[in-house]
Every structure is written in structure tokens, then in C-alpha cells.
Amino acid sequence: MQGVVRGTGHPVTFTYEQGMSSDSLTADIDGEEFVGKAVMRGASTTVGTAFGTMTAGTNTAFGTSTLFGSSYTGDFVATLIGNKGSTLSCQLQYADSSGLTTAGGVGVCQHSDGRVIDIVW
Questions:
Q1: Structurally, what CATH architecture does the domain formed by 2-43+74-120 represent?
Q2: pLDDT score at 45
Q3: From CA 72, how far away is CA 94, in angstroms rounded?
């Protein structure tokens, strides 16, 4: 993940580790190390029940089935906490809506001092 401070062009390198329910992110800005998590925003899960009847000759069978569905947005939020007291608040859009980090994406982070960092990966 490559970042750049908006307005100054100062490069910022982010690293990530893909996780099952969240991704771990790190960044280094001006010697301060930031560590945090990115989690999906806006995902939903639906559950439904289907009922059915089947007749073959004189035999009749009844059944039910539970159905599950998921919807993913690829929209992630992250908070990274620095080892010198600063924070980064990030909005990330993954290219893969299910959250596969390796597919790439774009994002923007706001440093607690007001700087804005644009990110691509």
C-alpha cells in the first residue's frame, strides 16, 4: 500500500496482513509507528426459510430448508493508533467487495494533526 500526504507529496508506506474478520494495518509517518485494524462497513446477512411439498403417486413428503445469503460492500473503515499519541482515521474501498486485500483498492486517511493521506494498493 502506497500513500502520499496530500499537498506535500511526502510518501507514506502502509503494510497490511489479510485476516478473516479484519485486516491488520501499519504505517510509519515521520518516525511514528501506527498500528490498527480495518473492518468492513455495511455488510449484511439474510436468513430465510423455504417450505415445500412433494407428491409422487400416493406418497407425499413435506420439507423445510433454511437459506442464508450475504452482501458485501468492499467499504472498510480503519483506525490506527501511533506510538507517540497520534491517530489515523481511514476510509478504504477494496477492489474486491468481499474484502480480499490483495485485489487492491483506494483510500484516504486523516491524521489527528489534520493531514490527509491518499492511499492506493
A1: Beta Barrel (2.40)
A2: 61
A3: 11
